[in-house]
Amino acid sequence: MEPILSKTEITDLLKAIHEGRVSLELDEKQQTQFLHCTPANLFQLTRPDSKQFRIPNFDIILDAFCRSYSTTLSNQLQRSLSISRTKLESFEFQKFMADKTNPGAIGILDMNPLKYGAMIILDPVISFSVLEIMLGASAELQTLHLERRLTALELTILKAIISDACNDLNKAFSQLLEMHSALIKLENNARLVSIVEPEAEVIVGTFMLKVGEHSGEIHLIFPFATLEPLRDSLRELLNIPTIIKSTWQSVLEDEVQEVPATITALSGNITLSIKQILDLRKGDILDLDYDPNVPLKVLVEDKIKFLAIPGTHNGKKAISLTGIYQ
User: Fold this and answer.
1) Helices (H) and strands (E) in the chain, counts
2) 10 Å Cβ neighbour count for 27?
3) pLDDT per position as a tens digit, 228-274
4) Cβ distance 200 to 223 under 8 Å?
5) What radius of gyration do the chain's Cα atoms show?
6) Which residues contact 92 (CB under 8 A, 6 or more apart)?
7) Fewest CB within 10 angstroms: 161, 194, 309, 317, which?
8) Residues 207, 85: contact at Cβ < 8 Å?
9) Is the overall model pTM greater than 0.70, yes or no?
10) Which domains, and CATH codes, for the chain?
11) Of 205, 202, 234, which Cα lies nearest the Cα of 218?
């Protein structure tokens, strides 16, 4: 641990600096140690990954997709594989697509009911590996690394795999809204696809897919405009009030509605002393404070809630509610 200067030593040091006896300039040898440094404004520092937090908790959705899609592909290909999220970044759409000269398979997705769509990209290694597996290649054969674009027939074969990704996206987003995503178009040329303006911001989730000894990347590209309407819902995704509302609060609300309550139609009331009550005999007549032309008061437990008129229904005495008691 570095030694800490005492209050007296600090005072002496500041005095020496003020009098010029201690120089604040670095000599040439010391300056070479700081050549790799760059100036920083402490009032404008941001976290390196701060752009990700413009869409809070979105990594939870991507991780849910990752788990679901891993199971789907394993069942579809009958192979043991794993998918893990490796990155979550923000780019300008044009800059991200600039290096995708041979992207493999590119799927354009409709994200109904969200206004804008999304994009999924399978790199060439994944695309050709999945094709060989779907066409019956042995697991012991080494995967081909072809330096060419996918053909129209190969894209058609891969269509089922990307359509499955849409179903798993729906499951991942189900905790926010009921989504009906679907594959609109499948391409092999990055210059033929566009989901937003070139300079628009996109959020890119990158996944590593491993099948045996082979691995490759899958990219999910969401325009910021697609996810922006969900920002508040994502922010509340892990908040305690949301969790309580979706569990105990909803359970209590449902159970309270099943609690039985007594309803009384009050035609009138009378006040008697204890002695008068004890003197009551069979045949006595009690005059109630009741006007037949005035609606009855209907009590729920001991609180007046409704007004009603008396009558009969199916041969039985009944009341018909005429309004809510104010």
Assistant:
1) 11, 10
2) 8
3) 888 888 888 776 454 444 566 777 888 888 888 888 888 778 888 99
4) yes
5) 37
6) 198, 199, 200, 201, 202
7) 317
8) yes
9) no
10) 50-241 (3.40.1550.10), 263-324 (2.30.330.10)
11) 205
